[in-house]
C-alpha cells in the first residue's frame, strides 16, 4: 500500500493497518457527534458553556486524531486535539496533546524512548485516514534525531495557503520543552528565522489554558506586529481548541483611538517620553500667584495663594491619578470656603429684619448672649445641652452649603482654572502637535490615560503573548506591563530582525526596568522553514551587520540555490508574471520597498506584494525580493533585508535595478529569469 510509510524501516505495515486506524477514527467521530448533539440540545439552558463546547468540538473536526503511541507495557494510546472519555472507562478514547501522558509523542527518541516502543503519526483528510508513518524507537538509531521527521518534512514542504497552520502534530523536543514550561513569570523565547517561535508561543498558551483553566477567567491576550499577522495566525488557537483569546496590535490596545498613520518614531518610543508625559500632565495644574476673588451669594470670597498651594499639596500627596486627585483638591478648597462662610454667618446674629443683634463669641460659636438675642428675635433653638456654646448651622445645613458652593458656576470656574479636568487626547495632542495619531502615539495616549484617570478603560489579562517582541518600544512595554499585573508573559522574537529604531537591541534592556531579574530566556536553535541554501545566502549580510551571530541550523535542503537578476524595475511586471507561472506550486510573495507597495494584500491570494515589515512573521513557498538596495537604505534596512530573505520555504530570487549590494554578492547571478 503506497499510502503506508515507515520512516524507521519497520516491516509488516499493510492496508489492514489503515483499516484499523479508520475504525478507531470512526469511533472517535461518533463520540464527537454525540457530544455535539448534546451541546445543541442543552444550549438553551446553559448557553455560554455549551456554545464554548460546540466551538471546541467544531475546531477539532479536522485532524481530530493524529497519533498513536505503542508503549513497552503493551498499552496503546491515541493522541489528538482534545480529550475524549467514555463513561465507565478509565483509559481515554483520545488523549489531549497537552496531557502529561501525551508528552512522549513529542519527545521520545531512540536514545530516550520514555517507555515508547513505536510512535505512529496518522494523517487524515476529513474523516478518512490517508497515511501512516511509524517510528520504531530503537536505541541503535542515530542520536541526532528529529522526532517524526517524515511527517515533519511533509508538513514543511506542503504548499502555503496564506494562513498559518498549527504544529501540534510535528512539535519537536526543543519546541515541546518550551510549550510545556509552566513556570510563572516572563519567558523570553529568542529564535532565528524558521524556528517556530510563533507556533511555540501559541501552543504554550494553549497548554497553559489546559493546565490552568482559571486563566480563562482572567483573560489572555496575544499581541502581534500587524493586523495582517494576526489574521495569518488566526486559525491556530481555534484549531488547538481555544476560542477565548483576545488578539490585538499595539495600536488596538487603547479603546476609541484610531491610528491613521502607521509611521513609528524612535523619539516617541524612548523611555524618557514617560517623564515628558508626566510633566505635561503635572503642568496643567497652575496655582495662582495672587489672591483669587469671586462672588457667592452677594458676598466676595477671597482665597490667598497659600490656600491654593496647600490644597494642591494635599491632593498630590493622595497619590491618585490627575482627575481623581482633582476631586481631593476641590474638596480641600470647598471645605475652606464652607468653614469661612460658617464663621461669617455665626459671628453675627441677625434679626428677621437683617439687623445685627450680637457680635458673636470669639471662637465663632453661639454664646449665652447669642442665645438670648436669638430668643428675643423669635428664633427657637432646639432642646439640648444649655451649658456650652452651640452653633447656628447643623450638619444638614453644612452639607447643603457645601453642595451649593460646589455647584456654583463661579466657584467651579475658579477651581477649574487651577486644576482642570484632562483627557489623554488633549495632553498628547499638545505634546506632539497633532491629533492625527500614529502608531507611536498610542503608547503615549495610554501613558497619559494612566496618569489622568488610572487607565480605567484598560482591560487587564492573566497572561500575555508578545510576538515579534523585538519591535516594541520602551513606551509600548510600559503599556503592556499595565495590561498584565501578574507579569505572566510569553515573549518571542529575534533581535537580528528588529526593524524599528525604537525597538529592542537587547532583552535585558527592555525588560529589566519592569522586572529586574524576574524573567527567563531560552532559545530555539533549529530552522525548520528556511532551506540551508537560503540561509547560506544570508552569511555575508550577517557577517557585515551581525558579526558573531550564530544563525539557526536548517534541517533540510531543496536543491534550489537562490539567484539574483539585474533588471530595470520597468521589467518587474513581466518578471512577476513569469515567476507566478513557474512558481505556481505554492504561494509567492513579492517583498519590495514601501514606495513600490500599495494597499495591504489579501493574504490568501497566490501572489502577494508586501514590505519587509508586513512580511515579518509570515512564510511563503517562494519569495522574490525587489530592489534590495532600497530596502537596505531604511533605518535598520539590514534587518529588514534579513527578514525578506528568510521568508521562503523553497525558493528565493532577487531583482536589483543596479549593482547588487555587497551583502548579496555571494548569490549567483542569473542572465535571465530562471
Report on the structure:
The strands form six sheets. Strands 1-6-5-2-3-4 form a six-stranded mixed beta sheet, with helices on one face. The chain contains 26 helices and 24 strands. Helices cover 39% and strands 17% of the residues. By secondary structure, it is of the alpha/beta class. Helix 5 packs across helix 6, helix 13 crosses helix 15 and helix 18 crosses helix 19.
* Mean pLDDT figure: 87
Total beta strands: 24
Write down the overall geometry.
globular
Structural class: alpha/beta
Binned strand content: 15-25%
* Biggest sheet statistics: 6 strands, mixed
Low-confidence segments, ≥5 residues, pLDDT <50?
A: 1-12, 384-389
Report, as a whole number of angstroms, the end-to-end distance. Answer: 38 Å
Q: From the alpha carbons, calculate the radius of gyration and give it in angstroms.
A: 35 Å
Number of helices: 26
Q: How are the strands of the biggest sheet laid out side by side? A: 1-6-5-2-3-4
| Share of helical residues | 25-40%
Amino acid at each position: 500500500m503506497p499510502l503506508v510509510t515507515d520512516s524507521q524501516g519497520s516491516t509488516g505495515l499493510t492496508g489492514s493497518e489503515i483499516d484499523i486506524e479508520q475504525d478507531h477514527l470512526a469511533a472517535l467521530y461518533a463520540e464527537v457527534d454525540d457530544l455535539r448533539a448534546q451541546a445543541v440540545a442543552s444550549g438553551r439552558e446553559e448557553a455560554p458553556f455549551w456554545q464554548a463546547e460546540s466551538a471546541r468540538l467544531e475546531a477539532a473536526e479536522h485532524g481530530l486524531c493524529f497519533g498513536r503511541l505503542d508503549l513497552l507495557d503493551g498499552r496503546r494510546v491515541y493522541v489528538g486535539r482534545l480529550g475524549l472519555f467514555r463513561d465507565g472507562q478509565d483509559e481515554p478514547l483520545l488523549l489531549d496533546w497537552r496531557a502529561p501522558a501525551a508528552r512522549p509523542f513529542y519527545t521520545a527518541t531512540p536514545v530516550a524512548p520514555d517507555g515508547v516502543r513505536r510512535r505512529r503519526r496518522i494523517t487524515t483528510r476529513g474523516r478518512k485516514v490517508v497515511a501512516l508513518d511509524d517510528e520504531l524507537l530503537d536505541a541503535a538509531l542515530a542520536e541526532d534525531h528529529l522526532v517524526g521527521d517524515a511527517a515533519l518534512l511533509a508538513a514543511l514542504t506542503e504548499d502555503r495557503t496564506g494562513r498559518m497552520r498549527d504544529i501540534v502534530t510535528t512539535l519537536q523536543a526543543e519546541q515541546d520543552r518550551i510549550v510545556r514550561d509552566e513556570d510563572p513569570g516572563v519567558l523570553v523565547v529568542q529564535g532565528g528565522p524558521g524556528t517556530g517561535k510563533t507556533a511555540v508561543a501559541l501552543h504554550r498558551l494553549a497548554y497553559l489554558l489546559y493546565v490552568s483553566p482559571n486563566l480563562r477567567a482572567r483573560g489572555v491576550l496575544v499581541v502581534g506586529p500587524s493586523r495582517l499577522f494576526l489574521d495569518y495566525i488566526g486559525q491556530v488557537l481555534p484549531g488547538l481548541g481555544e476560542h477565548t483569546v483576545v488578539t490585538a496590535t499595539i495600536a488596538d490596545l487603547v479603546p476609541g483611538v484610531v491610528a491613521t498613520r502607521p509611521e513609528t518614531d524612535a523619539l516617541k518610543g524612548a523611555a524618557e517620553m514617560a517623564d515628558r508625559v508626566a510633566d505635561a500632565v503635572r503642568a496643567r495644574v497652575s496655582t495662582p500667584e495672587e489672591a483669587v476673588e469671586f462672588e457667592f451669594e452677594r458676598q466676595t470670597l477671597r482665597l490667598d495663594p497659600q490656600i491654593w498651594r496647600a490644597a494642591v499639596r494635599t491632593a498630590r500627596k493622595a497619590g491618585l491619578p490627575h482627575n481623581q486627585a482633582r476631586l481631593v483638591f476641590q474638596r480641600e478648597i470647598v471645605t475652606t470656603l464652607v468653614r469661612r462662610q460658617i464663621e461669617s454667618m455665626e459671628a453675627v446674629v441677625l434679626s428677621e429684619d437683617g439687623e445685627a443683634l450680637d457680635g458673636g463669641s470669639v471662637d465663632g460659636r453661639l454664646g449665652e448672649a447669642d442665645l438670648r438675642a436669638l430668643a428675643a428675635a423669635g428664633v427657637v433653638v432646639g432642646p439640648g445641652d444649655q451649658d456650652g456654646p452651640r452653633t447656628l448651622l447643623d450638619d444638614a445645613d453644612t452639607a447643603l452649603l457645601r453642595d451649593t458652593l460646589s455647584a456654583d458656576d463661579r466657584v467651579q470656574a475658579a477651581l477649574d482654572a487651577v486644576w482642570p479636568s484632562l483627557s489623554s487626547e488633549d495632553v498628547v495632542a499638545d505634546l506632539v502637535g497633532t491629533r492625527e495619531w500614529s502608531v507611536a502615539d498610542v503608547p503615549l495616549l495610554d501613558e497619559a490615560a494612566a496618569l489622568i484617570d488610572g487607565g480605567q478603560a484598560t482591560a487587564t489579562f492573566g497572561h500575555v503573548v508578545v510576538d515579534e517582541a523585538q519591535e516594541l518600544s520602551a513606551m509600548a512595554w510600559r503599556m503592556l506591563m499595565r495590561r498584565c499585573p501578574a507579569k505572566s508573559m510569553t515573549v518571542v522574537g529575534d533581535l537580528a530582525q528588529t526593524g524599528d529604531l525604537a525597538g529592542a537591541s537587547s532583552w535585558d534592556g527592555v525588560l529589566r526596568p519592569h522586572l529586574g531579574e524576574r524573567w527567563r530566556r531560552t532559545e530555539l536553535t533549529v530552522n525548520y522553514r528556511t532551506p540551508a541554501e537560503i540561509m547560506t545566502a544570508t552569511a555575508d549580510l550577517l557577517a557585515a551587520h551581525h558579526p558573531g551571530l550564530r544563525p539557526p541550523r536548517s534541517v533540510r535542503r531543496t536543491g534550489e540555490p537562490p539567484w539574483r537578476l539585474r533588471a530595470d524595475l520597468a521589467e518587474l511586471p513581466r518578471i512577476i508574471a513569469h515567476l507566478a507561472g513557474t512558481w505556481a506550486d505554492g504561494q509567492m510573495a513579492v517583498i519590495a520597498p514601501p514606495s513600490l507597495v500599495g494597499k495591504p494584500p489579501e493574504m490568501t491570494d497566490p501572489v502577494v506584494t508586501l514590505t519587509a515589515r508586513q512580511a515579518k512573521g509570515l512564510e511563503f513557498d517562494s519569495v522574490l525580493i525587489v530592489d534590495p538596495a532600497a530596502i537596505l537604505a531604511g533605518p535598520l534596512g539590514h534587518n529588514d533585508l534579513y527578514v525578506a530573505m528568510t521568508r521562503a520555504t523553497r525558493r528565493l530570487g532577487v531583482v536589483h535595478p543596479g549593482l547588487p549590494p555587497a551583502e548579496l554578492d555571494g548569490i549567483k547571478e542569473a542572465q535571465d529569469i530562471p
